[in-house]
Sequence to fold (286 residues):
Amino acid sequence: MSALVNAVVMLGMLVIVPTGLRLAERPELDLLRRLWPLFAVPGSVALWLPRGATATALACCYALGTVVLALHAPRRAVRGGHLDPAGIALLTALVTPAVAGVALVAERSGHELFGFDLGILALTVPHFHFAGFAAALVAGLVCRVSDGPAGRFAALSVPLGTLLVLVGYFVGDWAELAGALVLTAGMWTVGLLTWRTGLAEGRDRTTRLLLLASAAVLVATMLLALSWALGEATGLPHPSLTWMAATHGLGNALGFALCSLLAWRRIRTEEPDRTAGTDRTGGRTA
Fold:
């Protein structure tokens, strides 16, 4: 793994996931959130070690945490009964880190899982922290505060696009392109709703800037994702994986995910009046 990818993955492990779990405001996730450093710190150390038994063992610690997180998804689905679009987005956020965790174990052990080379596995780890966990979580958050079809579309299309991209890994480049199209449509809708949220009356300057920055970044990063997927499917010139990691990956990690979650944390902690009359996930009470 390159130093850049390692740093981005560490951000996902140590900051994005626990911050996202706090924003989910699910009491059943509180204990896991508090214990998360016990999984994330060994996983972070594993990134910087040579491939081998030690790195694999530490990666397994992190993968265990992601699997425990994923196991909350079916429990929540059964308990919740009918799932609304925001609930589906949250379930997607709970499951996707496990894909990253499994890929991390395979890459650190030097095993080409399902025939994927180690470079692809290394990039799968940040992808499912940011295009998986963070994207689905933010899509659910904007859906909760944006009544109407746009919010529901965002909350459904981001999980669907993420699933199609994952299927494309196995089926082929055209399926991955379809996933990229759906995911881009969903993320641009998330960006639009985030922009509107940032422009809302009474929004403090810092929160506004974080929201607007995250929305603007999505325009560029998802265009890069589309250009890469289109090039892979058609053979047209497109950015290299190294370039994608340095632009699309870094932009999504810092510009979108980190800015979005920091903004939503400020909204939840510094503007309680805006969430008055909402349920524990930020949705309106009946």
